[in-house]
Amino acid sequence: MTVLEQLNSGTMYLICGGIVAFVAVVCAVFMVRAWRAGKALGMDPARMKRAVTASATFSVLPSVGILLGVIALSGSLGIPWPWLRLSVIGALHYETQVAQAAAEQLGLKLSGESMTADGFATIALLMSVCIMWGMILMTVFGRRYLARLSRGSAVKPAGVKGGFADAAMTAMFVGMVSAYLGSYIGDFVSGAGRFRFAGSWTPLAVAAVSALAMAGFTWLTEKKHMEWLEGFSVAGSMLLGMLTAVIIGG
User: Fold this and answer.
1) Which of 64, 195, 204, 231 has the smallest number of CB atoms closer than 10 Å to its CB?
2) By the 8 A CB rule, do 127 and 85 touch?
3) pTM of the model
4) Could you give the number of structural domains in the chain?
């Protein structure tokens, strides 16, 4: 049995599926409690039903991006593990980037053919350890941070947006994007894959199309006041980027 077959075994489905089922039950419990709390506050049941329907409707398309992430990682890490990560605590951009970075450091390609048991264990451990700090820090410092946010919102001048957290998050993502694109640009400039058009240009073309798509979604959301598009921007940009890769690589 290959490593990929082991990662898609019934045992893995049972372990990961059990955790996902537990989280789903917790979500259902909180949904029922929220409904009862709304009724206790005297909220209109008709309006609550419309809120539930709207939330469910607008969750469908953004979840396509999550499904794409599961599909993209399933070829190297199996289906159960990416399904667990992206269903419970993971983020699409985080899981794919960390898995790729860990595989590169191990000298592996993120594919089923080159995956080893030790490689999967290292990748899975890194994906888990790196993301748990948000929960730990929120548990320790969350109450104090919320108090600071409340004081800051009370004295913030009108029209002032964001803060250090927004700037730090933006800088982090700009740095990650620059690092990933820089490696592909460096390979092309240095002559790697000079005569393989698709191999050298596909990542750059995908990044450019995805960035333009995201810019278009942002423009429509902010300038044309189509706020409903905000939840679809990531999934839409990913789909257009993947379509670009298929067209160039095909």
Assistant:
1) 195
2) yes
3) 0.65
4) 2
